Amino acid sequence: MKNIKQNASNNLIFIPITVLILSILLELSLSKIVFFYETPPSLFLIFTYLILFVFNVNLPVFVTFLICLTYDLLFGINPGFFAASILISSLMLHNFNLNYLNNSFFNISVFFIIFFSIVNIIQILFFIILYFNFPNLEKIIFQLGLSLLFFPLIFLLLRNGMNFFNLKLH
Questions:
Q1: Are 20 and 47 in contact (CB under 8 A)?
Q2: Range of the domain at 90
């Protein structure tokens, strides 16, 4: 019986990993469209936020780092650039009381904006340290706007998909 429960928990970790990798590939394919060139909506950040904070999936830090490193390598970013910013921001935000996130969509959206902002501030700091130059804020703001447009759709799809498969990740 214990072995069956362990296999079920491994499957529950495999599902978010698969969703995150598919979100990387979807974001990569969106970046090839002319309208989204260089600034696709950050689907990976949306899925990462939803999986780590809203659905409370406890992915191991090493697995999260490897998935983010895959993102870095596929998008041609310096290896560890995005991975470090995701890990630092998620470790910072896990210290907050996240119980109020389950109350309303507004709270979930506000916390996503905070998460997105912290990740981008850390990336800007890494960029300034590495290149001694300030990045183009226009692209960052455009990406934030696109991500905020896609966020409700992805949230509803992921929540309804989890309800359809009777997955309880809390």
A1: yes
A2: 2-164
